[in-house]
């Protein structure tokens, strides 16, 4: 019964957000702050899933300026955990196929997110340069999931280098955002599904890196995030 009630509530709330978010985004068509507004609406849905989310922002996070945010991509619950971490004037990068999802697709496009053709590797690679250009011209930040896919309990997967190429080309820092482990921790038939911590880390300077050693930057950021996720998991385990 609880599962059914939750499903009804979540679908109803998501449809409302998609409806009003699309209207809002069409009025302010592709305004770079649309994404953050709508993302925070989704981020407030976590009580419907029986989870408590603690959001920790880095000191002076509002002063980050243009940057590339990278997050660990676990599963579909990221929409109600990490989504609240999206800062103003930040857009995300997603597959073109997202635009064809009923209700959500129009919202994703109209709010100003960037759609990539993941099947065309040459075009996707050149798009990193276009991302860098947009960052500098429009003074926006980009949110990316460098794993490239949901980890689904496999831990932090190896990073692809696209986000790091874009950061180096734009001359902007990388800002990691980490979420504690969610795998197999949410049972929609259970009233209380515990706590999740999402934490934004201080910016990582990219000025010492180039195309030649971009993999070093990706590996360093991976190590920083892996350590932080383990710390968050241990903190929650100690509390319980």
What does this structure look like?
The protein is built from seven helices and seven strands, in the order H-H-E-E-H-E-H-E-H-E-H-E-E-H. The chain is of the alpha/beta class and 240 residues long. It has one domain: 3-Layer(aba) Sandwich (Glycerol-3-phosphate (1)-acyltransferase). It has a seven-stranded mixed beta sheet, with helices on both faces. Helix 5 packs parallel to helix 6. The protein is globular and about 55 Å long. It starts with a helix and ends with a helix. The model has no long low-confidence stretch (mean pLDDT 91). GO terms for molecular function: 1-acylglycerol-3-phosphate O-acyltransferase activity. It catalyses: a 1-acyl-sn-glycero-3-phosphate + an acyl-CoA = a 1,2-diacyl-sn-glycero-3-phosphate + CoA. InterPro entries: AGP_acyltrans, Plipid/glycerol_acylTrfase. Its EC number is 2.3.1.51. Pathway: Lipid metabolism; Phospholipid metabolism; CDP-diacylglycerol biosynthesis; CDP-diacylglycerol from sn-glycerol 3-phosphate: step 2/3.
What is the topological layout?
Blueprint: H1 2-27, H2 34-43, E1 52-56, E2 68-71, H3 78-81, E3 90-95, H4 104-110, E4 114-116, H5 121-138, E5 141-144, H6 162-170, E6 174-179, E7 195-200, H7 214-239
Parallel strand pairs: 1-7, 2-5, 2-6, 3-4, 3-5
Antiparallel strand pairs: 6-7
Helix pairs in contact: 1-2, 1-4, 5-6
């Amino acid at each position: 019964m609880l599962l059914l009630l939750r499903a009804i509530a979540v679908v109803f709330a998501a449809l409302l957000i998609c409806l009003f978010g699309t209207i809002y985004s069409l009025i302010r068509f592709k305004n770079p702050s649309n994404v953050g507004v709508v993302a925070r609406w989704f981020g407030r849905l976590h009580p419907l899933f029986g989870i408590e989310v603690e959001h920790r922002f880095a000191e002076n996070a509002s002063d980050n300026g243009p940057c590339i945010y990278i997050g660990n991509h676990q599963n579909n619950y990221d929409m109600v955990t990490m989504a609240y971490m999206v800062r103003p004037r930040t857009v995300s990068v997603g597959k073109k196929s997202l635009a064809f999802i009923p209700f959500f697709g129009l919202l994703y496009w109209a709010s100003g997110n960037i759609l990539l053709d993941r099947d065309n590797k040459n075009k996707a690679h050149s798009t990193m340069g276009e991302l860098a250009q947009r960052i500098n011209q429009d003074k926006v930040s980009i949110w990316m999931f460098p794993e490239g896919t949901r980890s689904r309990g496999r831990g932090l997967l190896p990073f692809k280098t696209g986000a790091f190429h874009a950061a180096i080309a734009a001359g902007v820092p990388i800002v990691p955002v980490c979420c504690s482990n969610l795998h197999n921790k949410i049972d929609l038939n259970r009233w209380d599904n515990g706590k999740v911590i999402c934490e934004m880390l201080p910016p990582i300077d990219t000025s010492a890196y180039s195309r030649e050693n971009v993999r070093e930057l990706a590996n360093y950021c991976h190590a920083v995030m892996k350590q932080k996720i383990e710390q968050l998991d241990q903190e929650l385990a100690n509390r319980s």
